[in-house]
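The passage that follows is intended for readers who have already worked through the single-chain material. We present the inputs for a multi-component assembly, then the predicted structure in tokenized form, and finally a short commentary. You are encouraged to pause after the input and sketch how you expect the pieces to fit together before reading on.
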Amino acid sequence: KNEVEQSPQNLTAQEGEFITINCSYSVGISALHWLQQHPGGGIVSLFMLSSGKKKHGRLIATINIQEKHSSLHITASHPRDSAVYICAVGGNRDDKIIFGKGTRLHILP
Amino acid sequence: DSGVTQTPKHLITATGQRVTLRCSPRSGDLSVYWYQQSLDQGLQFLIQYYNGEERAKGNILERFSAQQFPDLHSELNLSSLELGDSALYFCASSVGRGQLYGYTFGSGTRLTVV
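Having made your guess, compare it with the prediction:
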């Protein structure tokens, strides 16, 4: 079993839909990161969470430390949101980073 | 432009060769991270340096080595290259050394081993 599991692996939705991507992890962490990778390959760091909830524009990220679970929400989705979204966790024993396999999101106009 | 500069953007080389990938962190950032992204493995953490010292090591092969110089730029050396080393290599930087800092990614170096 992978230490970081993301679901779904692939998601296709219509423009305007509310999107949720989930990340579960099995290790103790000091922080969880959500990353966005566009088709061209570039990676952008969206959020770093150690507790609670963060919001940036139409993106919301939450984390439940007790349940070892995080969600990334996109409100009013748009075709430009089409990308791979990657969850990554930083361990609380060292600075190693473990990545999920990513969720490929495709928003149809 | 993220502020993290990676060179070269593309590299094609033959098996058995040695290459050096370079990363200049964002101004003010002291940590540099190296990652490998291959089609079958996804993103994998290779190594982290903080202010010139190795901070954490991931799944980095013995054929690979890295260092961070006094001006904080970092180099990743890949030797005795194999076909399976073909991948995107990303560098990221952050201001601190722990996990409670956001990362800024470079645009990556695409390595093709033929």
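Commentary: The CA atoms of residues 35 and 45 of chain B lie 5 Å apart. The mean pLDDT of chain B is 93. How closely did your sketch match?
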